[in-house]
Design a protein that fits this description.
ten-stranded mixed β-sheet; single chain; 12 strands; alpha/beta
């Protein structure tokens, strides 16, 4: 503003009116005032608003880090793994990984091997911590904690600190965290591209109310000798759950999958993979059966107790799915 005014006054005119010495002093004063007027109160040049991706352009810590977000007045903590290949101008997929009852996010990070896969394949993993080391997959009024509502808030928070591919956000969980993933498949198929539950099934209370807005690609990994989440389901100390076959049937019907199933045997027949492909919207349903195995997250191994690597199988499943645009 002041610069435009000075450009319209000729030096000769100014000299005649107020004298050259005074004009020079006034010129210096006006320039100083003009510079001050173009600055913020703190003295720093005003910055234009930044987008989420631009904010993520700031230096970030690669590898492991911890963070927190406040939701409904409660401080919620998480562990985040960012691979070395991360760049702010190249958004990466995000996997939400939910721990089991009595555990924490860091325990699942250490026990699942997901970080190794994330580093190899180029995606991020966030391991949130449940309040009192547990998740509420049912009604908020049961525990006073709204974990279903917390998840989209967490996704939005991570988008503000990292460049995330919004079409490639996924959810995986084990045991109590797996029950939450089953609930998220009912509620969040518009925001989460695919789901994987390990040693969990669909809580019976959700069977009638679960009406996803879009197909929900679902992978389940269950052991036939699981005593905490029995293969046959039933009324248990922590609630009623569907059997593994009934849960698979539920998602097969919801996703309008063909009746035909592709079955393959692995590791000498100890692992069976049954896949219902070509479902509505390109979705699918897959069941990994761990024969004679209990309540575990499979980590591969070797010899007579060898199983498939659960984290690798989950990422292989996730890689095949992304949200449709529009």
């Amino acid at each position: 503003m002041f610069g435009a005014f000075l450009r319209g006054v000729k030096p000769a005119v100014m000299n005649r009116v107020i004298g050259w010495g005074r004009a020079a002093r006034l010129l210096s004063l006006l320039i100083a005032i003009g510079l001050t007027a173009c600055q913020t109160p703190s003295g720093k040049r005003e910055q234009s608003p930044q987008s989420d991706a631009a904010s993520a352009a700031q230096p970030v810590k690669l590898g492991d880090m911890t963070g927190e977000v406040v939701y409904e007045g409660q401080r919620r903590t998480y562990h985040l793994y960012t691979p070395k290949s991360y760049r702010f101008d190249r958004p990466l997929p995000l996997v939400l990984a939910f721990h089991g009852y009595g555990s924490q996010g860091k325990d699942l990070a250490n026990g699942s091997g997901f970080n190794d896969i994330a580093e190899q394949k180029g995606f991020m993993v966030v391991y949130p911590d449940g309040i009192d080391r547990r998740w509420n997959p049912l009604n908020k009024f049961l525990t006073g904690v709204d974990d279903v509502g917390f998840v989209p808030a967490l996704i939005d928070h991570i988008k503000r600190v990292r460049a995330i591919d919004s079409r490639r956000v996924y959810a995986a969980g084990v045991s109590n965290g797996g029950f939450l993933v089953q609930r998220l498949a009912c509620e969040s198929s518009f925001q989460i591209a695919a789901f994987a539950s390990v040693v969990a099934t669909l809580p019976s209370q959700l069977q009638g109310s679960c009406k996803p807005q879009a197909p929900s690609p679902m992978l389940m990994i269950n052991g036939t000798d699981d005593r905490k989440v029995p293969w046959q389901g039933g009324n248990l100390s922590y609630g009623s759950i569907l059997s593994v076959p009934r849960t698979i049937d539920f998602w097969q019907r919801h996703n309008n999958c063909p009746a035909s199933v592709q079955v393959k045997q692995l590791t000498g027949g100890r692992v069976e993979v049954a896949r219902y492909a070509n479902c509505q919207g390109g979705s699918e349903v897959e069941l990994v059966t761990l024969k004679g195995v209990g309540h575990v997250w499979p980590r591969g191994g070797s010899g007579p107790t060898q199983l498939l690597n659960g984290s690798e199988e989950i990422w292989s499943f996730f890689e095949r799915h992304r949200l449709r645009q529009g």
